[in-house]
Design a protein that fits this description.
By secondary structure, this protein is α+β, with helices and mostly antiparallel strands. 53% of the residues lie in helices and 9% in strands. It has helices at 21-30, 48-51, 72-82, 91-120, 128-150, 162-172, 185-194, 197-210, and strands at residues 3-8, 35-40, 61-64, 67-70. Strand 1, helix 1 and strand 2 form a beta-alpha-beta unit.
């Protein structure tokens, strides 16, 4: 059965790998599964056909036969469970890798997303100058905790896993803020993820969609 995912027809980040379909592409590349991509416009995302797949009108979605999924974490978890390469064979190591997936999405990403919202959408508010340091402190707190836990290890728990895929993807969103560079082992960790051939293929595939036409 062919796997089909959805992605932005034109990504807000211009193909820099921050759109969440990159995470799904990366997972599929890691496990060696071919897939097709159906591009959707912002208008189409709010229409009944797409809402039937994703009730919140977002991307990505995942279709395989009669299975339809939404939410990036759930999709990557499904891929990792069904195909070898993203979760360890050892039961305890497998459970820890899954824990790191949840930590990336539930603990580390929320303050990073909050910072993005504060800078892009709330920067002109009268209370922004007072709020911004609080938001930045929340990001630094999580990055500091993660940095201390990672230490000088290459990956979060032994070999690369779906936990690292999700965590590196989340940390990419903090790069533009400059805060990631305050914890030297974290940019190095992200760079190891970006150096993986599977990530490079996923990144290039998303970038190709967003390149302006030649000529």
């Amino acid at each position: 059965m062919t796997i089909t995912i959805t992605a932005f027809e034109r990504s807000p980040d211009g193909g820099k790998g921050l759109a969440r379909d990159t995470r799904v592409r990366w997972a599929l590349e890691e496990v060696g599964q071919p897939y097709e991509v159906r591009l959707v416009s912002f208008r189409a995302m709010k229409e009944p056909a797409h809402l039937a797949l994703h009730p919140f009108g977002q991307i990505p979605t995942y279709e395989e036969g009669d299975l339809g999924l939404f939410e990036t974490g759930a999709i990557v978890f499904h891929i990792a469970e069904r195909h070898a390469g993203l979760l360890p064979d050892d039961a305890n190591a497998r459970a820890r890798a899954i824990t790191w997936m949840f930590a990336a999405l539930s603990t580390v990403e929320p303050p990073i997303l909050e910072l993005g919202t504060a800078r892009l959408l709330e920067g002109d508010k009268s209370w922004s100058a007072q709020r911004m340091p609080l938001v930045e402190d929340r990001v630094r707190n999580r990055l500091g905790q993660l940095s201390r836990r990672l230490g000088d290890a290459d990956w979060l728990d032994g070999a690369f896993s779906a936990g690292d895929l999700m965590m590196a993807s989340v940390l990419l969103r903090s790069r533009a803020s400059g805060m990631l560079d305050e914890y030297p082992n974290l940019p190095a960790y992200v760079a190891r993820g970006e150096a993986r051939p599977a990530y490079k293929r996923a990144f290039e595939a998303q970038l190709a969609v967003n390149k302006p036409p030649a000529g």
